[in-house]
Amino acid sequence: MAPERLVDRNPRLSAGELAARFSPPARFAEVRFETFVPNREHPSQAEALGELERFAASVVAPAPSTGGWGIFRRRAAPPAEASTRPGRYLDGGFGVGKTHLLASLWHAAPPPKAYVTFEALTAVIGFLGMAEAVRTFAGYRVLCIDEFELDDVANTLLTVTFLRAIIPEGVKVATTSNSIPERLGEGRFNAEDFRREIAAISEHFDALRIDGPDFRAASRPARTKALDEGAVQRLAGTSPNGVTLDAFPDLLAHLRRVHPVQFGALLDGAETVLLTGMHPIENQGSALLFVQLVDELYDAEVTFGATGCAVTEVFPESYRHGGFRKKYGRCESRLSAMLAEADRRA
């Protein structure tokens, strides 16, 4: 039987169906605070663990409100228990455990609760509309947002407006990023008005810096070369169910027709996703959509294989030095890891 094609899928989940998916992806489904092992050489990891455990307890038993909603202020010295700010911001580089801790917070918190990536959140707000999104999320006790990146002016205003609306409703918010709060948006725009918006966001959160090396870099194999056609055919034949096979140009065109909020559903039931003819993406809009799809593939632990150009050639050099460089860097890292795993399985 010939493999299915992603381009033949057109998911259209309703608002309620989307809300039911607001949970950590398969990669972080089993993590807990108890499974987080801090690096002894970097005490900030243990400190962040303790702070998030206390924050989780405050979600279970809310502390009295002090009023004055200001989203990120660097936390002062202990006692940490005294903080009544409604948010926590985990700042650090790749592979230091931020997402592990964020997902652990979600698992520890009582329902109703939501876990989304920043890209998914902005996509949901755009899909539902601001008013409906606020009504949906205002009912949660805690909202966990992974990879909080202010990529452009529109997302800045969208997110600030949204969080300013739900936090006074009693929603606690925790988020991760790779930029310190005062530098969110740096390298992307310089307008003074939007700097003020970022400063306003900083007032809501206690920021926790997490230091350390990228543990994944040492423990995870990587491959920048694409697979050969034989490897892709073997992968297609070894899994009779849940295999999709698409031409890369066709997939890029299809991603422009499917709303990004539906990308997770686009992969439902897929255990192996294969592409042929991967090539440099000259259109940045298509490149960013592909980045979002790769994030979904990686988080869902889907086997991914592709023929064509090397990972380092998918995004033009100018992309990797522009405002979205962290997105592209993350995508290249994830593509390399998935190709290495696919090569091992083939």
Automatic annotation (TrEMBL):
InterPro entries: ATPase_AFG1-like, P-loop_NTPase. Gene3D superfamilies: P-loop containing nucleotide triphosphate hydrolases. It holds the Pfam family AFG1_ATPase. One of its GO terms (molecular function) is ATP binding. GO terms for cellular component: cytoplasm. Keywords: ATP-binding, Nucleotide-binding. This is ATPase, AFG1 family. It comes from uncultured Acidimicrobiales bacterium. The lineage of its organism: Bacteria, Bacillati, Actinomycetota, Acidimicrobiia, Acidimicrobiales.
